[in-house]
Design a protein that fits this description.
The complex is a heterodimer of chains A (194) and B (628). Helix content of chain A is 58%, strand content 10%. Chain A is mostly helical. The longest helix of chain A is centred in the middle third of the chain and has 15 residues. Chain B has 628 residues and is mainly alpha-helical. Chain B is built from 27 helices and 6 strands. In chain B, helix 23 packs across helix 24 and helix 25 crosses helix 27. Chain B starts with a helix and ends with a helix. The chains are: A mainly alpha (194), B mainly alpha (628). At the A-B interface, helix 2, helix 3, helix 4, helix 5 and helix 6 of A face helix 2 of B. Chain A: Keywords: Calcium, Lipoprotein, Metal-binding, Myristate, Repeat. Chain A: May be involved in the calcium-dependent regulation of rhodopsin phosphorylation. Binds three calcium ions.
């Protein structure tokens, strides 16, 4: 994408519509709708982490979604430059919504793998789990115990970590997920999002 | 949820992918989108100006007119657009609300028209953005005050059935309502002035006899002053008692400021009457006389300016308090400083700090009497600092008080101006209403003529007459229906009420007592006995459609007794069947019209109202009928 500098503000202009159409699995109309929403909220053409967090927090008024939004931002920001342009946004969305099951699972793994070293450690998963539970907030029924995230992490590792080496690799992850009925089922939920 | 963020919902749902693999339970089924609508454009035609937007934009706020199915009522099938017959300028703000999620209030827009548009489109005004909210609230409050002032003016209108007590209270509070009240107002004002002047003159030394020293007038003409005082106090007492009697809430009245002033003004006199010439007490008695000067405050009932001043001071209480407090602080500081500075000098007048207060006050208010002056250098230095700071401290709160006074004073002036404008406006409305009712009465007459003479009058003339607007016709038809609905039984015959001109009604009501009809026909005499005002009005009213003079003014001839008698005698018989006989115009109308022609004079007397129909063509029509 082209970067234009006008005085002090930086503006990104995305690639052409037809290029994006080729890169992603969205139709022209869908891209148009997505871009209109994107540009409305971020007239400058890029999303920085603050805006990302504020947008996401509007959907979760009960709890604190900032940690999870941070992880999401890291996952969306494929070029690691602190901002998400429309291409990044739309490419990731295309994978999640229109990609194959394997692509989706890969993306999820990438989300969990905070330091992008190819394996999920217990600390990383604990952070993720805490951020998810934070989104729930305090007022839930039944009450979320203090140990719930830890238990959940233990559950996860028990399920995924086949060779019990304390980390979950991508192969373990894919294998376990593909064998799990409910996970497969829920992946199909994304077919109807756009 | 803000409008634009709704567009990010797909992203939020996609982000849920992070939860799937760690979830213990299966996810719920996603809601199915049946016949997913493509994002389509909607055209909104507002008074000719076309606005186009996405349907999704409008769907963001489903509890407004544009966001719900309510807009389907305005859909135009032929042009495939939504048409609103509203102000396009204000609609801009409304549509921008959907686009950006923020409602703005443009300054140039009138507040009430803006409110109306908001109400029409179902948008509550609380969501106006912070940038425009203050302005909106200010304008709204101004408007509300204006409406409240109008309502307050309404209490000038005299409610019909007031008890004597209420009437008296009203006379006291608003002297301009009746002459008696005005007289009372001026008399009390005069006596207040007299009393105050008496008090003042009482102390002037007037003419001394050569062997005595000068005495004040009060002691020289004791009797005269005493009589004057007695008279004034009596008037004030009577006034106070009358007000107390008339007050709607006596307890509240007694607590009010004005009544306290009244009491304080007359009390010294009574106390003086009661007290004997005891030497010890007479000193106190003299002090009491001071309170007589409070009578001057009674003038505030008479002067609006005084009341405004009092109200201003009350509303600036906090600023005045601040002024007083800061002055006190400064006085104490400077007095202390001056005392210690002047302590050293001999024969100094600054004997103590309280004694220095006097100097400080006189200096700070820049009076500078000169009875106490510092002699030491330090004293002079501090003295000059004191006077400089005095100027500053006093000047600070004064603009606030002044601006408050100006605002309240102008508000009052505005009220008076509006009262005068309102009178003019009401007069205009009354004229307009009269015009409408005249038009109705005329159209009735014309209508009856038209029904009777359809086949005689040429089509063009008919068409000309029928070009009173369709709206008028429908309105008149409605009034007609109302007339036919209200029915009363007169002399065992069902007759419907009719609208008449107000003047005519009043006149006929008055005349009913004065008129007697000579009986030229038996039916008339029989009617005479039973007739009351209702009947006379009806009978006169029946003259209306068949006479050839203009609408209400044709009632004017009836003020002439002779004319009335002639008309009534000649017309009563045929008129009894006038309405039913419209289907057979020939026979009866012939008789009527011949009768009409034979009385040339009454219709030509000058009518009070407007002449809607010239007598010329009417005569012609009449002739035509009789020719039939």
């Amino acid at each position: 994408s082209r970067v234009t500098f006008s005085f002090l503000s930086v503006r990104y202009r995305p690639e052409r519509l037809d290029h994006l159409e080729q890169k992603t699995n969205f139709s022209k109309k869908e891209l148009q709708v997505l871009y209109r929403g994107f540009k409305n909220e971020c007239p400058s053409g890029v999303v920085n982490e603050e805006t990302f967090k504020s947008i996401y927090s509007q959907f979760f008024p009960h709890g604190d979604s900032s940690m999870y939004a941070h992880f999401l931002f890291e996952a969306f920001d494929t070029r690691n430059n602190g901002s998400v342009s429309f291409e990044d946004f739309v490419v990731s969305l295309s994978i999640i919504l229109r990609g194959s099951i394997t692509d989706k699972l890969n993306w999820a793994f990438n989300l969990y793998d905070l330091n992008k070293d190819g394996c999920i450690t217990r600390e990383e998963m604990t952070d993720i789990m805490h951020s998810i539970y934070d989104m729930m907030g305090k007022y839930t029924y039944p009450c979320i115990g203090d140990n719930a995230p830890m238990e959940h992490v233990d559950n996860f590792f028990q399920k995924m970590d086949k060779n019990n080496d304390g980390v979950v690799t991508i192969e373990e992850f894919l294998e376990t997920c593909q064998r799990d009925e409910s996970i497969m089922q829920s992946m199909h939920m994304f077919d109807s999002v756009i | 949820m803000a409008a634009g963020v709704a567009a990010w919902l797909p992203f939020a749902r996609a982000a849920a992918i992070g939860w799937m693999p760690v979830a213990n339970l299966p996810m719920p089924v996603a809601p199915a989108e049946k016949n997913k609508r493509q994002d389509e454009m909607i055209i909104l035609n507002v008074s000719g100006r076309r606005f186009e937007t996405w349907r999704n934009t409008l769907d963001r706020y489903p509890d407004t007119l544009l966001g719900s199915s309510e807009k389907e009522f305005f859909y135009n099938e032929d042009t495939k657009e939504y048409f609103f017959d509203r102000d396009p300028d204000v609609f801009r703000s409304v549509l921008n609300f959907y686009r950006t999620g923020k409602l703005h209030y443009p300054r140039y827009e009138c507040i009430s028209s803006y409110d109306e548009e908001l109400a029409f489109f179902g948008i509550i005004s609380e969501i106006i953005g912070d940038c425009c909210y203050e302005e909106y609230k200010d304008r709204k409050r101004e408007n509300a005050e204006r409406l409240m002032d109008d309502q307050e003016d309404n209490k000038d209108a005299k409610p019909p059935n007031m008890t004597f007590r209420e009437a008296m209270w009203r006379a006291f509070e608003n002297p301009h309502t009746s002459t008696m009240a005005l007289v009372f107002y001026y008399v009390t004002g005069f006596f207040i002035a007299v009393s105050v002047i008496t008090n003042v003159v009482e102390t002037v030394p007037c003419g001394s006899s050569p062997n005595q020293k000068e005495v004040p007038c009060g002691e020289r003409y004791t009797v005269a002053f005493f009589c004057m005082d007695t008279a004034c106090v009596m008037i004030f007492t009577v006034e106070y008692l009358m007000r107390l009697f008339a007050a709607p809430s006596r307890y509240r009245f007694m607590r009010s400021v004005m009544s306290i002033i009244d009491v304080v003004a007359i009390l010294p006199y009574y106390i003086g009457l009661v007290m004997t010439d005891n030497e010890d007490v007479s000193g106190a008695f003299v002090t009491l006389r001071v309170f007589r000067v409070f009578r001057i405050f009674k003038f505030s009932r008479h002067s609006q300016g005084l009341r405004i001043l009092g109200y201003t001071l009350k509303s600036c209480a906090s600023e005045l308090g601040f002024l007083l407090f800061s002055l006190t602080m400064a006085i104490i500081i400077f007095a202390t400083v001056m005392f210690y500075a002047e302590k050293g000098s001999s024969s100094s007048k600054f004997t103590s700090i309280p004694a220095s207060f006097w100097y400080t006050i006189v200096t700070m208010t820049t009076l500078g009497y000169g009875d106490m002056v510092p002699k030491t250098i330090a004293g002079k230095i501090f003295g000059s600092i004191c006077s400089l700071s005095g100027v500053l401290v006093i000047a600070l709160p004064v603009p606030v008080i002044v601006s408050n006074f100006s605002r309240i004073y102008h508000q009052n002036q505005r009220t008076d101006k509006r009262r005068a404008q309102k009178k003019a406006r009401l007069a205009r409305i009354r004229i307009a209403k009269q015009g409408t009712s005249n038009a109705f009465l005329d159209s009735k007459k014309n209508g009856l003529f038209n029904e009777a003479l359809e086949f005689t009058v040429s089509p063009e003339e008919q068409h000309l007459r029928k070009t009173t607007s369709l709206l008028e016709n429908q309105h008149h038809h409605l009034l007609h229906c109302l007339e036919k609905t209200t029915v009363s039984v007169v002399l065992k015959q069902l007759v419907n009420h009719e609208f008449v001109d107000e003047q005519y009604y009043q006149q006929s009501y008055l005349e009913a007592g004065l008129q007697t009809y000579p009986s030229r026909s038996p039916s008339l005499s029989s009617r005479d006995g039973a007739t009351g005002t209702c009947c006379t009005r009806r009978s006169k009213n029946r003259h209306a459609p068949l006479q050839n003079a203009s609408g209400p003014p044709h009632m004017e001839p009836l003020t002439h007794q002779r004319g009335l008698q002639e008309l009534s005698t000649i017309h009563i018989l045929p008129l009894s069947t006038s309405r039913s006989s419209l289907n057979e115009p020939a026979s009866l109308n012939c008789r009527i019209t011949t009768a009409i022609i034979s009385i040339p004079t009454p219709p030509e007397t000058t009518p009070e109202g407007d002449a809607h129909l010239p007598t010329g063509p009417a005569h012609q029509n009449v002739v035509k009928v009789s020719a039939l």
